[in-house]
Design brief:
5-stranded parallel β-sheet, 9 helices, 21 strands, about 25% helix, about 30% strand, globular
Length: about 350
């Protein structure tokens, strides 16, 4: 029997003692701050709240028996508030002191890629990610079979979820320590794979071909410039580019297919959908045709010139000389199903709580 205590209560793990576990945390200081705050009415997600979420996630990890936590460093936007929050011990349930990865900080996506690689090399049992779809896409590109706990702190988020970080940390810890078996707590995600000549990249939610000539500010918000849209999944209640597909034929995360939509100017087609492209920004999008995207069947594009947006951000510029194909892959990253983990823990009586026990 393993006991994890704090100032208020004792949590008793009734199953076998948890194995030693390392959990990584990656928080993007730039998530929730892109140009869509100027072109729409999106809210700003402050770094102080991200630091607070990390402290709460660490409290959940500690309660589950995790003692080793690695954190991606940044230039101070999150690390500074996190240091201050962790130094306040009065009334705080957190006694685990995380260690920051010794790596150069470039304040670019390279930080996320490098931190993910180092966490995987160190043997992380899970990685908690605070960010939007773009941040999770970067982590998914390097995490291999290490599962992700996806927490939303971005703009138009479809892949990560809005969850209380304390609960998410507890679930990640229970799975990382083996207190809850992986076969009930993990789900396999789809992804979209794009090939442009010799370059290969991925998208977790949507891939869009646009008539923008340059990457520029990256974010896509002008629906009149959309040419083709591919989605791995799309909810009818989504916001962002995947909402277009969601209003045509919703596709669940577990469905063995995606959707391919050919867009058109609204003056050229009678078929249109009204969708929320960004917070506070609703647009009419013309539809030429759409159909299911099946795995293992690449779609070869015949582009003129423009850019390809991955999960809402323009990443690849192309011209008629490029050969481009898009394919649905059913073997994307693993993510932790918070509800399934905690429901399993409840059914198996993994956690018992005795209120008022001494520290």
């Amino acid at each position: 029997m393993t006991q994890v205590t704090n100032a208020w209560s004792r949590i008793v793990v009734l199953s076998a003692p948890p194995r030693p576990a390392l959990v990584g945390i990656i928080a993007n200081p730039a998530s929730g701050r892109d140009i869509r705050r100027l072109t729409s009415r999106a809210s700003v997600f402050p770094n102080a709240e991200k630091a607070s979420m990390m402290v709460r996630a660490i409290a959940g990890l500690e309660a589950a028996g995790v003692r080793d936590v690695m954190i991606m460093p940044d230039s101070g936007g999150i690390c500074g508030p996190l240091f201050r929050a962790l130094s306040v011990t009065t009334g705080s349930p957190v006694t685990v002191q995380p260690r920051f990865i010794d790596m150069p900080v470039t304040s670019s996506a390279d930080d996320t890629l490098r931190a993910t690689e180092l966490m995987c090399q160190a043997g992380a049992g899970a990685i908690i990610v605070l960010g939007g779809d773009g941040t999770h896409r970067a982590v998914a590109a390097r995490c291999g079979q290490v599962p992700l706990l996806a927490l939303s702190t971005g703009t138009n988020n479809a892949f990560p979820e809005m969850r209380e970080a304390t609960v998410a940390g507890l679930a990640a810890g229970l799975l990382a320590t083996g207190a809850v078996p992986a076969d009930v707590g993990l789900r396999r995600n789809k992804l979209l794979r794009v090939r442009c000549d010799d370059r290969t990249d991925i998208a977790l939610v949507d891939l869009c071909v646009t008539r923008h000539n340059y990457v520029g500010s990256r974010a896509v918000w002008d629906s009149a410039l959309l040419e083709e849209l591919f989605v791995a999944f799309a909810g009818a209640d989504a916001i962002g580019l995947s909402a277009i597909a969601g209003q045509l034929e919703p596709v669940t995360r577990s469905a063995p297919h995606g959707l391919h939509v050919r867009c058109a100017d609204t003056t050229l087609t009678p078929q249109q959908v009204i969708v929320p492209i960004a917070p506070g920004l609703i647009s009419a999008v013309g539809i030429r045709e759409y159909g299911r995207l099946l795995p293992g069947q690449p779609v070869v594009l015949a582009p003129q010139s423009g850019t390809i947006a991955l999960d809402g951000e323009r990443e690849i510029e192309f011209d008629p000389s490029n050969r481009i194909s898009v394919e649905l892959d059913l073997h994307g990253p693993l993510t932790i199903d918070v509800a399934a983990v905690l429901e399993n823990a409840a059914r198996r009586r993994v956690l018992r709580h005795y209120a008022g026990s001494p520290a």
